[in-house]
Every structure is written in C-alpha cells, then in structure tokens.
Write a structure and sequence with these properties.
The protein is mainly alpha-helical and 157 residues long. It is built from eight helices and no strands.
Length: 157
C-alpha cells in the first residue's frame, strides 16, 4: 500500500479511514488488525464504508469483532451483495459468519437457501473450503489408483 508512506501528513486519506474506524468504536489495536487483514481498507471509498457500517450496525446488529475478523466486509457492495444476502438469510432464520455470508459464489450461497432446513455447523465448516495456500503444496490425489506398480511408468520409457 503506497498510501502508508504518506502517514506523516495528518490529513491523509489513510488517517481519515483510521479515524472513521475509531469513531465506529474500534480500538486502535482492532484497526491495526483490520488493516493488516485487508490493507486496501484504508483506500476504500469512505461513503461506501459508512453505508456498509451503518447497515451492519443498524440492520444486522452484529458484534464489532466480526468486522475485525472479516474487514473485507467493507469491500462488498451494500445493494449488490450485503443487503440481498442478509435479507435472504434472515428470512430463513439463518445466523452465519460474515465470511460465509459474503465470501462465496452466488451458487454456493443459494444452494442451502433452497433447503427446508439448514445445518449451520455444516455451513460454517465449509469456511475451511475457502482458498488455502497450503492445499497447493499437498499432492493431488484424484482417487485414481494406478494399475501399475511403482515402476509402471518406466515400462513406457
């Protein structure tokens, strides 16, 4: 984030974002954690951040810690993602994490909404299926076992 270089100037947009988050009730330590988790938080449109926070606080009624753990919430469009998904989930009586609510494809979100009942724990366990760099290091196992022994490939060399 090149904006961080200009932190010595008191009226920089970065400082304004930090001040806004502090006014919302976040401690400086929470703001630090949020910016580390989502650096472009300090470069977002301030009006959009305010709208998202107002909706989070007034309609969603959730704890600030949820935003500390998922500051990416501010990067989602209120009208295109946050409000529609929250309203659909609310109609179903669903209380899930912000990560699950927003950080999945429309298909993955809509699938459980078609069921009569939803297993919240199963949905929350799906958070583990989000992108994880460690999975790139694991050997790929397609479930296909070779009919050849360990030396089977050498027969064709």
């Amino acid at each position: 984030m090149p904006q961080v270089v200009s932190l010595s100037k008191i009226n920089t947009p970065v400082i304004k974002h930090v001040e806004f988050l502090k006014i919302c009730g976040f401690s400086l330590e929470q703001v630090r954690k949020m910016v580390l988790g989502c650096p472009h938080l300090v470069a977002l449109n301030m009006d959009i951040m305010k709208l998202n926070f107002d909706y989070f606080e007034s309609k969603m009624g959730r704890e600030l810690d949820e935003l500390v753990n998922f500051p990416g919430f501010f990067t989602y469009g209120l009208e295109s993602s946050v409000r529609p998904r929250y309203q659909i989930g609310s109609k179903k009586g669903l209380k899930c994490s912000l990560v699950w609510l927003l950080n999945c494809s429309d298909t993955k979100f809509e699938e459980p909404m078609n069921y009569d009942t939803i297993d919240i724990e199963e949905m929350e366990d799906d958070d583990d299926s989000l992108f994880d760099m460690n999975t790139l290091m694991e050997p790929k196992n397609d479930g296909l076992d070779s009919d050849f022994g360990e030396d089977g490939d050498e027969e064709y060399l």
